[in-house]
Amino acid sequence: MSIVRTALAFLAVTFVGAGAGLGSAWFHAKTSPTGAHVDQRACETGASEKFQLSDAASVVLEIPSIITNLRGENAPWVRLEVSVILPVGFSDKGRYGAQLAQDFLGYMRTLEAAQLVGGTNLQFLKEDLKEIASIRTEQPGTDVLIRTLVIE
Q1: Using an 8 Å Cβ cutoff, are 61 and 50 in contact?
Q2: 144: which of 19, 59, 70, 129 fits an S-S bond (Cβ 3.0–4.6 Å)?
């Protein structure tokens, strides 16, 4: 008899959860826009080129891949691919891209593998890279996007 009650309770909880999920999806579909705006010029230029965002407020600067070992004995290797968001009128992006790559490389060599484990530490890494980029470029609105982080 208790197995039947347990099965019924399990089914009831499953149906309530499924109903809540469907209701949430329906509400989200009704309140969100029907489609995302895609900048046609960015699609036509290709993914390898640097592109300008549609609001013309910033430019994405892709930093060359950073491959180095971390600090410590028998430390693993790390590969980091980041992009830096800069204001449109920012000049000499190529030079700053190379300098930022060197700055990020030097910073990554000071980290240990334990400092890159978990979501909180990934957020700390992003904030540190963002601070390095804003100091180097002397632009307060600079942001950093971590595209790839591989620890081997």
Answers
A1: yes
A2: 129
Length of the chain: 152
Give the C-alpha distances (Å, rounded to integers) separating 118 from 3, 15, 125, 150: 40, 33, 11, 13
d(CA 45, CA 51) in angstroms, rounded, equals 8
Task: Tell me which of 40 and 104 has the higher pLDDT.
Answer: 104
Asked if 78 and 116 touch (Cβ cutoff 8 Å), the reply is: yes
Dihedral sign of CA atoms 79, 71, 101, 89 in order: positive
What's the average model confidence in pLDDT over 70-79? 88
The region of weakest confidence among 14-18, 67-71, 111-115 is 14-18
Measured in whole angstroms, how far is the alpha carbon of residue 60 from the centre of its chain?
A: 13
Q: What pairs with residue 148 in β-bridges?
A: 81
